[in-house]
Amino acid sequence: MRKYEIMYIIRPDLPEDDRKALIEELENALTSNGADIRKVDEWGMRDLAYEIDKHRKGYYMVLYVTAPEAARAEFDRRIHLSEDVIRFLVVKDEQ
User: Fold this and answer.
1) DSSP per residue, 25-82
2) What is the rounded CA–CA span in Å between residue 35 and residue 1?
3) Which residue ranges form the domains of the chain, and what is each CATH number?
4) Confidence (pLDDT) at 93
5) SS3 call for 6
């Protein structure tokens, strides 16, 4: 199992209930495949460095996880299918 830092940005116009459901769905994609979520940082609504899909703001989430390859692959699959996530990045954490 490897350690990962995952950051994703949710559309700013998504209603709060839908946003919470999306966050829970993505976290379940990890935990149901054997991942351990060590820390969740909810940065909240922030300005984007540049416009993405006509949005100037986004709701930022950062996860620190220990996960097998299958969990990371399932997370990647689900996040690619979601139209509510405008950007994401998965980085191996070498600490």
Assistant:
1) HHHHHHHTTT-EEEEEEEEEEEEEEEEETTEEEEEEEEEEEEE-HHHHHHHHHHHHH-
2) 8
3) 2-92 (3.30.70.60)
4) 79
5) strand
The rounded distance, in Å, linking the Cα atoms of 81 and 92 is 22
pTM comes to 0.89
pLDDT (tens digit per residue) in 4-46: 999 999 999 999 999 999 999 999 999 999 999 999 999 999 9
- Write out pLDDT tens, residues 82-95: 999 999 999 997 76
Phi, psi at residue 38, to the nearest 5°? -80, -35
| Strand pairing class (2-10; 85-92) | antiparallel
